[in-house]
Design brief:
The structure is a homodimer. The first copy, chain A, is of the alpha+beta class. Chain A has two domains: about 60 residues, Winged helix-like DNA-binding domain superfamily/Winged helix DNA-binding domain (Arc Repressor Mutant, subunit A), CATH 1.10.10; about 170 residues, Chorismate lyase-like (Chorismate lyase). Helix content of chain A is about 25%, strand content about 30%. In chain A, the strands form three sheets. In chain A, strands 4-5-6-9-8-7 form a six-stranded antiparallel sheet. Chain A has a two-stranded antiparallel sheet with strand order 1-2. In chain A, helix 1 packs across helix 3 and helix 2 crosses helix 3. Chain A is elongated, with a radius of gyration of 22 Å. At the A-B interface, helix 4, strand 6, strand 7, helix 6 and strand 8 of A face helix 4, strand 6, strand 7, helix 6 and strand 8 of B. Strand 10 of chain A pairs antiparallel with strand 7 of chain B.
Chain lengths: ~260, ~260
């Protein structure tokens, strides 16, 4: 099973500490509470600060802690379930289910990766709609929606040339097309600087990247690349109505 | 938008370096190639080793690099698409689509988080089937499938009491039930030690945790918690047949 000899690798030092802190979070702290500083925590648990820091990083990755500039480390609330199922069979829309807001629109040749997904000619321009999704009053995702110019030929030159109005005009034209299907993929990524700013995170923070292809008239009519906050979001895919998995992040996969 | 002032935070130092290395990976290195050691790389790019290390960590998070004990840092192949759509409407099965292998089965009171998902009584026992999923000859996911004892009342005492045979007996009994629906959630987690060993990763490595609830006779008949490698996998959800997003991780969201 691979080239490494993991059987011989012991659990890292901070692992036990992580479990101990996790239990302390359950019993001694409330959601939103600010943790003591690293020096005090290291003293409390009798460990080196480097070990403590590793354990805290792990707990942040698991959604138990949030580290915020100017605030410190706080106990995270349960992750919120964000519906990203493809069962709605709908074009992206403004202020629809999930509270998407259109911020801007520009028209240019897209990155090569997008060209490949769209299977357009290398030099074909796309309208790029930038949207932000909010949940419970917080930003949860930043999206770039790429729409080839040829997908929306009726887009009028009398429409606004940029800004939210232009974005809404592109979405309106998409709605005219017959949506034949869509597919979606989720993978781990790191926040680009502009996404990070909109999501209130630091650049490089782990994010869940959701890529969606929208199919119409036998071709890919649009591609969405949405960056979801991995610390606060749990992406839900349901085929059973509005059921939502109700456990919180901290408790998944307890052993 | 939140309590921090991210607008005033400049891009971190390693960010530009990450982009430069990423371009070098495209032009100067092949998939699987081992990178020079950190000292040589730092010298090549004229940066401090700490900065280099941050950039490498970021590239690992984005799936561009793989760090393997005893091998070093290698250029990662494109992530593989792993189908986790709920459209199949099927109970978990052995060696079915996606090549799941049953490893073991035990019977005990599950963790509290699982009890909540199953909505069973606190002390009700579950059969816990441990499975491993492979793709292209590599382990991609480790799963714990929790099946309340009451979901499979016909499970016979003459069936094997543990091991793969017992696991298959539990799956066989599940197949008898009428599957009414399922839902699925994806979130970021970190690999537990036992999962890490099976997935050929180090404990604490970022993973994608997929939680599935299976519904039958108006209740949750089983819950699966599967840990997917985040470095090598892209989880795909399609409603358009077997279409698969064909771009590789390294190229998503290029700017």
């Amino acid at each position: 099973m691979g080239t490494t000899q993991l059987e011989s690798v012991p659990e890292p030092k901070y692992w036990h500490l992580k479990t101990v802190i996790s239990e302390a979070l359950d019993s001694d702290f409330a959601v939103g509470e600010i943790l003591p500083n690293e020096r005090d925590l290291a003293a409390r648990f009798g460990v080196a600060r480097a070990t403590l820091r590793q354990a805290l990083e792990q707990l942040e990755l698991e959604g138990r802690l949030q580290r915020r500039r100017g605030v410190g480390t706080t106990v995270a609330p349960p992750r919120m379930g964000v519906d990203v199922s493809t069962t709605q069979h709908a074009w992206p829309a403004d202020s629809g289910q999930g509270a998407w807001e259109s911020l801007d629109c520009s028209t240019a040749v897209p990155p090569l990766a997008v060209t490949r997904l769209l299977e357009t000619e290398a030099e074909e321009e796309t309208h790029t709609v930038r949207r932000l999704r909010a949940g419970h009053g917080q930003p949860v995702a930043a999206e770039l929606l790429y729409v080839p110019v040829s997908s929306v030929p009726e887009l009028s030159s009398i429409d606004a040339s940029s800004g939210p109005a232009r974005a809404r005009a592109v979405l309106r034209e998409l709605q005219r097309l017959d949506l034949e299907g869509q597919d979606r993929a989720v993978e781990l990524g790191s926040a680009r600087a502009d996404d990070a700013r909109e999501l209130d995170r630091l650049p490089g923070a782990p994010v869940l990247v959701v890529t969606t292809r929208y199919f119409s008239a036998g071709r890919t009519a649009a591609v969405s690349m949405a960056t979801y906050r991995a610390d606060t979001c749990r992406l839900t895919f349901g085929d059973s109505g509005d059921l939502e998995i109700s456990h919180n992040g901290q408790e998944r996969r307890a052993s």
